[in-house]
Hints:
This protein is α/β, with parallel strands linked by helices. The protein has a single domain, classed as Glycerol-3-phosphate (1)-acyltransferase (3-Layer(aba) Sandwich), CATH 3.40.1130. The chain contains nine helices and seven strands, in the order ααβαβαβαβαβαβαβα. A seven-stranded mixed sheet has the order 1-7-6-2-5-3-4, with helices on both faces. Helix 1 (2-30) packs parallel to helix 5 (107-113) and helix 2 (37-54) crosses helix 4 (82-90). The longest helix has 29 residues, at 2-30. It is globular and about 55 Å long.
Amino acid sequence: xxxxxxxxxxxxxxxxxxxxxxxxxxxxxxxxxxxxxxxxxxxxxxxxxxxxxxxxxxxxxxxxxxxxxxxxxxxxxxxxxxxxxxxxxxxxxxxxxxxxxxxxxxxxxxxxxxxxxxxxxxxxxxxxxxxxxxxxxxxxxxxxxxxxxxxxxxxxxxxxxxxxxxxxxxxxxxxxxxxxxxxxxxxxxxxxxxxxxxxxxxxxxxxxxxxxxxxxxxxxxxxxxxxxxxxxxxxxxxxxxxxxxxxxxxx
Length: 251
């Protein structure tokens, strides 16, 4: 009997997630065209916090992170599609994402309408266009977020950061903020429930998140890099080391 109730509860929360996605689409269509940039940022933060509330994911952000991340490039380790909403809840940003995200039902459309820069792997012309879009956004003083590992992990390690995506910040003379992100159970132990890895589908990952009680997302500033910035290889290495050290300390 408890398992039946648990299954029904999970399905009801899935319906709430779907409804919230539709509400996000309505906000994007009706409010974004008339809202200021700061207004759109507030809407993005509120909507993301509401989604995390539906998923029962609590955020623990380090002191000063909500007010201390000015315009520039945010770089973070990557565990789950949930990462986007955690960062947006605390510090709303436009994101750089793989081109296949654009094809996800509704989510891809929402991402495109929210300033996401899509990168197609293996296409040099598309990569050049993406770098140009990043440079324009950073040049306008916007906040742009990337996951320079290029893939997700279970959160037990930080893969090397690809330097190419750092070039936009160097060219724009923008600040770079390295963020350390991790997920935990209520008792503080690390949780792999949100990890979007291997052959797991988005829906299966979402169900696993819904079935895990007391999830906590921890977000902290691992390091800040101010212009003039070093070359992209050294910048990527320094950011990687800072995030890996911060996560090792959190564990």
